[in-house]
Amino acid sequence: MYAQIVKSEGAKSRDEMSPEEIAFQERIDRGEKIEPKEWMPEGYRKTLVRQIGQHAHSEIVGQLPEGNWITRAPTLERKAILLAKVQDEAGHGLYLYSAAETLGVSRDELLERLHSGNMKYSSIFNYPTLNWADMGAVGWLVDGAAIMNQVPLQRTSYGPYSRAMIRICKEESFHQRQGYDIMMKMCAGTPEQKAMAQDALNRFWYPSLMMFGPSDKDSVHSAQSMAWKIKINTNDELRQKFVDQTVPQAQYLGLTIPDENLAWNEEKGGWDFSEPDWSEFFEVIAGNGPCNAERLGARVKAWDDGAWFREGLMAHAEKAEAARRAAVVAAE
Amino acid sequence: MSSEWPLWEIFIRGQHGLNHRHVGSLHAPDAEMAIRNARDVYTRRNEGVSIWVVRSNDITASSPSEKGPLFEPSNSKVYRHPTFFDIPEEIGHM
């Protein structure tokens, strides 16, 4: 879901595969992990770079809507918690960039592709966080949706990606719980505070459903990614799971899911719900969401403003290394 | 285009008495900064008591395509495993 639209080649039938590709597919079918320098089809490598890169970018850009509230947190404890959470997101981005780099793409190249708009990040981060209740809704819904997607990806076929996901999942549950904790507090507060919580749910519900990406029932891209085990569940399966998990949590808070078609379906053992507005989703992906320009602008500015610092530290390191070598030579 | 900070491989000793274990990699200008960054990236929840950092370029790895021949010598020596030998029941634990 942090990688919503990842283009990949169509699934190949066995007859179309080369002997190497057949052996590769058999390794994946046996549940073996693929490691960085081993042979892999070019399509596998490219799709993974896109997917892991998109995921990494989402973690990094995802710091912005929450970072906005660090200085405005209602208590020192909430501030410390939010700070720790946003720091985790930076860490998650770094694990994932490192995983992508094992596929032969450089960190700077990935960032350049983000900054130029060639690579995407999750649509969810192009929505504004207007008040403190949004910190609750983001942790509860956005991180909740992220966990839905990331838990199965721990079993993905590419070793470094799988290991990054395992680390991330260990930390992610803190994120969702701190969000739900904020929602509980607000829902137990004044009527105005509860109204803020409801408003945040209203605004984040459909964008959260969009995080899983459009229905992929007929998508050839998905078929290939699933054969390669770089996608484990369909977008629709994960979205359904998310709704089934979240509805009782909203009921506990005494909040209403903003969907008049929401109804328990005994037959499927899950909730029926309305699809989000997919035209809005494609608009946001295309760069026309409420905060696209602001988010990307903040990333580019941070990169440009940090150039002197990166170069300065590198120059210092080179100078220190030269001095160390000179001292070694002199001692000999 | 500025020069990219070099890549470092990070090894963490999780507890006293255990080996350092590879946990991932990161970019840093020098070894000192690599350790500081590793602390923030890989030990935010008390995961370590010691950190090693090694320039990725300084690591020599065996080639995946030579996996077969490289490890063949041990494959064919099943007698290196204690389970190769049948010890009578009445001897007990050995």
Number of helical regions of chain A: 13
Uncertain residue ranges of chain B: none
Oligomer: heterodimer
CATH fold-level assignment of chain B: Ubiquitin-like (UB roll)
The CATH architecture of chain A can be given as Up-down Bundle
CATH superfamily of chain B: Phenylacetic acid degradation B
β content of chain A, as a range? under 5%
What does the largest sheet of chain A look like? 2 strands, antiparallel
**Could you please say which CATH topology of chain A applies here?**
Ferritin
Shape of chain B: elongated
- Main interface by residue count: A-B, 28 and 21 residues
InterPro entries (chain B): PaaB, PaaB_sf
Protein name (chain B): Ring-1,2-phenylacetyl-CoA epoxidase subunit PaaB
Organism (chain B): Paracoccus alkenifer
Pfam family, one (chain B): PaaB
Q: How would you characterize the overall build of this protein?
A:
The complex is a heterodimer of chains A (332) and B (94). With 332 residues, chain A is mainly alpha-helical. Chain A has 13 helices and two strands; from the N terminus they run ααααααααααββααα. Chain A has helices at 19-29, 42-61, 63-67, 76-101, 107-115, 133-153, 159-187, 191-210, 220-227, 235-253, 278-288, 292-305, 307-331, and strands spanning 263-265, 270-272. Chain A has a two-stranded antiparallel sheet. In chain A, a hairpin with a 4-residue loop joins β1 (263-265) and β2 (270-272). In chain A, α2 (42-61) packs antiparallel against α4 and α6 runs antiparallel to α7. Chain A is globular and about 75 Å long. The model of chain A has no long low-confidence stretch (mean pLDDT 94). Chain B has one domain: Ubiquitin-like (UB roll), CATH 3.10.20.520. Helix content of chain B is 22%, strand content 22%. A three-stranded antiparallel beta sheet of chain B has the order 2-1-3, covered by helices on one side. In chain B, a hairpin with a 6-residue loop joins β1 (7-13) and β2 (20-27). The model of chain B has no long low-confidence stretch (mean pLDDT 92). Chain B has two helices and three strands. The N and C termini of chain B lie far apart (65 Å). Chain B has 94 residues and is of the alpha+beta class. Chain B: This is Ring-1,2-phenylacetyl-CoA epoxidase subunit PaaB. Chain B: It comes from Paracoccus alkenifer. Chain B: It holds the Pfam family PaaB.
